[in-house]
Specification:
single chain; alpha/beta; serine-type endopeptidase activity; Alpha-Beta Plaits; S8 family serine peptidase; Immunoglobulin-like
Length: 620
Amino acid sequence: MPKNPSGGSTTPPDLPSPSPADTDATATAESSVTPQSNGSTASTGNAGHAGRNIGARKKQYVIAPRQAPEGLQALGFQPLQFDALEQALRNSSDIEVVDKVGPKSVLGALADGMGGGHGVLVARMTEQKATTLHQQGQGRLLVEHDQPLNLMEAALRQPAMVTGVAPTDSGGPVLNAVISVVGKDGAPQANAEVSLFGSMLPASGVTDANGQVTLSLFGETRETVRGLYVKPKADYWSFYQRDPDISPDEANVVALRALSDWPALSGFPRQRCYGWGQKAMRLDQLPGSYRGQGVKIAIIDSGAATTHDNLRGIRAGFDIINKKTNPNGWDQDTLGHGTHCAGVIAAADIASGIRGFAPDAEVHACKLFPGGQVSQLIDALEYCIDKQIDVVNLSLGGAEVSEALEQQIIRAKRAGIACVVAAGNSGGPVQYPASSPNVLAVAAIGKLDEFPADSYHAQTLDSNVDAYGYFTARFSCFGPQVAVCAPGVAITSCVPPNNFAAWDGTSMATPHVTGLAALCLAHHPDFQTPQYKTRGPERVERLFQVIRASARRVSLGDQSRTGYGLPDVLLSVGLNTAASQPQPQQLRMMPMMAAPAYDPFALGVLPYYRPPMPYAPLTW
């Protein structure tokens, strides 16, 4: 039998025989559940108590042939016979193949990458079975946990000295507080999120139709309350009060400020306006004919509410999470996150609301949340390849690097798709897939005097404030992978059904750059030439280069938090030169070269070592 250089067979690995631990979805080798004659189960370790012990259930895995780095194939690296493996998996009694993600058309089948057109399998099996399958693949088969993905909206941060400890004395103090949230003219605000922080576990709830919620802090008194946070459903600014004076005897009223009461949003939404971030990037100075026509944008998120007046022009999409039951449910956005991103990117240029960067672009809403996983993101990118999307907005991330997803990102890049990705909101290192060398990672900044001092947006401020009021957002992830930064604090945009809200996050920063990328592709002279008009990785790299070159440095902080700086719309479409930028700082001093299309160090295939930049592409 022929062998590859690593000693692996060219045939698919033999699947191990089912074991008792593998055949039961909830059983493990240590399980003590014993079937009873009457069909019920009882836990042998808990005499007198009906039920069963909790064990590990079968997990969902992504299975794909590993693509060899360029050059290894010439050395005899043999691809896996994936069709035979798929049949073996489907014939296995203790492995459930739940989906196969692959090319959706001839165009997708001809695209390079991802298993040579074989696609990936999604299967449920025990961890033991997955480990055995991976080992028998001998380095040629990817078997990865189908990890969940998260939206990159800034999470509520607990005040200092608040812990997750629960009081042990049930007879201790309890602080019961009624919070009443009202808006203009005392109108009660329903569905507002309210959180009360003491020194231990916080209490959270949502206001009822009367705008009220009752919260109970166990082990706390009014003197130990550290903070009160209110996030309205829409149309009002958030509220945050440190060390609030809470009364347990009467309702505590929080009067919210309307968005339109802020001077920069005067008359909003009846009168159309630009967000502060769009003005910072000089979108308001762009000639009216520059509207992103001819460019296709995909927003892989929670959908887009086309009930919104500013988003009625979005007519295409794909509901990935419900593709078998309701693939056209992409226009239902229960979270509002995708709708908010869509507003920044492409809100219609009408008399009311906000105007997006590229209102004439063709927008596709790919619904991945709630509940999105890596396999579904691979499926969404396959949709983008099939539809010949130009720019993809990814305001999402996962906890771990996925090589299977990376192969699909490379495949998309080779098809001419530029992925613009949120860096993350943990305040730590850049998260994946923003850490991929094949995407453009975006960090978040804010600006002083663009939000009320008593709003929660003020909690994102750090000490790195430049002469123009720009600051790096405390929540934004950082690292050498950050390419640029964009406005991501107090960003006003669309939310369902036909309202507006001001949100924070690298999720909000990324659409600014996605919209700018669409304008660049539609109007920069370079992309009207044969060299860069043709879809391919060279066009993607040139787009990233133009965006980085248009940026100006902002903030006085570490440049790993801002990259090259804040991109400029006029420069990105080729209207102005760098000398005409309004700020004296131009580009960051550290040079950056385009990363190689395949980086085994970043993927964890080889021991992690990243040489100092600039560096030459790896050769094998």
